[in-house]
Amino acid sequence: MAREILFDLTPIDLEKVAHGPDEVRAVNPHRHEMQLIDGVIFIDVPGGRAVGLKDVRDDEFWVRGHFPDRPLFPGALIVESMAQLCYFFYRKRFAEDNRILGFSGLDGVRFRGAVKPGNRLLLLMEAKELRRRRAIFRTQAIVGEKIVFEGTIIGMPI
User: Fold this and answer.
1) Measured distance CA(40)–CA(79) in Å, rounded
2) 7 belongs to a structural domain
């Protein structure tokens, strides 16, 4: 059964980055090797949607060991990349809240394809529940036309 993309991307210019790495750093606390999103292409706070990107490079810290002869972007880092997009969205919605939005759960996570150096990973999120005490996001990651990850991310401010 073919999976459908979370929402229609045709009205979005996927080549135009609305918020680059410096703007992401101004909102998200992640630094150095753990800043895993390269930008936010689209954000619609009232509509509860965002699209981010991660350009997977061959000089990243995990390449040498995961796996040496066939590097694959680790699934845990795909989830972390997605969580960072959700964090960016949450902070845009609740800008006055200085707490960190931490993981409190994952549901229905599926990895559906390999992500390799040279791939651009599009990160899609849709807020399903957004409150100051809990946030639930439906998420997908896409390489080319293929959904390579999907799942629900649950966050709780700490």
Assistant:
1) 16
2) no
At a CB cut-off of 8 Å and minimum separation 6, what does 143 contact?
113, 115, 119, 120, 121, 122
Q: Select from 101, 79, 81 the least CA-distant residue to 151.
A: 79
Asked, for residue 113, whether it belongs to a domain, the answer is yes
**Predicted TM-score of the model (pTM):** 0.96
**13 is a domain residue:** no
30 catalytic per annotation: no
Is residue 153 a part of any domain in this protein? yes
Three-state SS for 77? Answer: helix
Burial of 96 (0-12, 13-18, 19+ CB in 10 A): exposed
Q: Which amino acid is at 36?
A: L
In this predicted model, what pLDDT tens digit does every residue of 4-37 receive, in sequence order?
A: 999 999 999 999 999 999 999 999 999 999 999 9
